[in-house]
Design a protein that fits this description.
Blueprint: E1 3-15, E2 21-29, E3 32-38, H1 40-43, E4 47-54, H2 62-71, E5 76-83, E6 94-95, E7 105-111, E8 114-118, H3 120-124, E9 162-165, E10 168-180, E11 185-189, E12 199-204
Antiparallel strand pairs: 1-2, 1-12, 2-11, 3-4, 3-6, 4-5, 7-10, 7-12, 8-9, 10-11
Amino acid sequence: MKEILGKKIGMTRIFEESGEAVSVTVLEAGPCPVVALRTKDKHGYDAVQVGFGKRRKNRINKPTAGHYKKADIEPSQYLREIKTDEEGIDVGSVLKVDIFKVGQKVDVTGISRGLGFAGTIKRHHFSGGNKTHGQSDRLRAPGSIGQSSYPSRVFKGMKMSGRMGKDKVTTLNLRIVRIIEEENLMLVKGAVPGNKGSIIKIRVSNRAK
């Protein structure tokens, strides 16, 4: 397996053997029990359905409870599919952080922090208007977004004010600095998207430099 679900714990700093200080993000990678299998013959694609996190039994509907009961697995807080065609993975198997190695490059996918409504200066890094020629209220304005006679409308996709953040973001080529197997923790160099406690997906990078 080359993918696993996890949770962002937070950031800290560690020192390598050379004495260099490295900023790292602590990730909880697994354990992820395999709840169901998807096969190309039956479903049209190969994948495994895995769970992550503990879930209260009183906060689960009957169809979902039956799905976990069929696999004889405790209900998980999250349920996701990971595409893979590897053999030897059965329902009930548990994916842990030991599928990764120190020094590997990984890609981490998460949902970025939601920052609410933002203007064009903050959202798109516009420079704003000139501070000369008598302008007093154009410093943080986006400028012209269309013309009057032609095309007499605003083009779709124009960079304007709006909701900022809360997007699916993937950070590439993060080096695994340390792995703590007994606690299912992984330390990667650099920052990853999302708030503390948010769910993430970790996969071995296929674009490693």
